[in-house]
Amino acid sequence: MNPSSENPAHARATNESPLSESISIVIAGIRNAGKSSLLNTLFEKEVAIVSPVAGTTTDPVVRKMELPGLGPVAFIDTAGIDDEGELGAMRTQKTKARLASSSIVVFASPAHRAPQPQEIRFLEQLKSSKKPYISVLTHADCGFDAAKLQWLSKEQYIAVDNLKGYGAAEVRKALSALKDIVHFEPSPLEGLVQEGDTILLVAPVDLAAPKGRLIQPQVETIRDGLDRDCTVIIVKERELLETYNRLMEKPRLVITDSQAFSKVAADIDPDQPLTSFSILFARKKGELDTFLRGISALNNFPAGGHVAVMEACSHHRQADDIATVKIPRLFQQLVQPNARFSVARSLEVVKTMPCDLIIHCASCMLNETAVHARIEAIAGLGIPVTNYGLFFAWANGLLPRALEPFPEYEMVYRPFFRNGHAT
Q1: Which domains does the chain have, with CATH numbers?
Q2: pTM, full prediction
Q3: Based on C-alpha coordinates, what's the Rg of the chain?
Q4: How confident is the model over 330-375, as pLDDT tens digits?
Q5: Is 256 helix (H, G, I), strand (E, B) or coil?
Q6: Which of 21, 81, 91, 186 is least surrounded by CB atoms within 10 angstroms?
């Protein structure tokens, strides 16, 4: 399949596109519906284990390809929605989590079997969710159950024979046709720069920096700047002052790692537009206003209160780790000296303890839908939430300055501030 180049944010090679930048397509259905076989048929090779034994798929299986119109996509094969027992309940929870973070759902139902109660409930819920989906009748080689056809008579379904492979092209075509209703996540620099602009990026190389490569927000921002025909300059914080002063024309925007806010702000002009990668990604994921509201919790944080620092990925911790060292140290200096901290990667951990504030990472490894699902769940717990970038901007007196580069600032973000302070 030919890579789609219609949208510069989706024109990267499939094997280089992170899952967070791929359209998430979840294949869901009851056990033995032929979900794994369908995945193999779509990829025209064996990418998932297939067995007549119910419940073969335990953990979600993720495989990537390029689809015309959609660009890089990630197909996710999941456990059956009717899985049973204690382990089955755990597997269905994983399936529900994948569905919540999906962009598109492929509902797989065996053509030769009558509709099951779990399938009927699932399809009703899927319709209510307003999430884009297609229905696929698998095992078409085994014939069609009359009740199944009657049940889906108002659906536009596609029949697939996993043995002979027919129907797979129609499934791919139907998915590509959803391009006009699928929400594409905006790129980091959306609405911020124009062709010919210069962008200056500040990327500290500290103990936590990955060896031999840049972190995902830096990579995405560089690529987006190049796609927009901008000049992109990247320096470490100690090289910033000299580089900045040598520029004949000041950059359209300076973007820094949030941890270097203080040093960067001191080295550039006071009127220089400035923000951070973490704040860019809060905007990119559609949750900047939510995180901004969470900043107000810093004004009345209780003595001995509990802060959960949430991360979206696993990594090896270093001596100056941001989640376990830098944020707690700064928080105790500026907000509440007796504050308690824990680090969590899932809401299940947060649910087990009283929590007064969540400070979330940039979520660069989650797609926008997954971030929204997580933030909605946090809202359901009644816990205020902000993110790394906004916390560091607040701690360094750079709010609202770090938000002013955004064109929506006056209408959306400025009302959060009175006398220059978040309320």
Answers
A1: 8-180 (3.40.50.300), 198-280 (3.40.50.11420), 286-422 (3.40.50.11410)
A2: 0.80
A3: 24
A4: 999 999 999 999 998 887 778 888 899 999 998 888 888 889 889 9
A5: strand
A6: 186
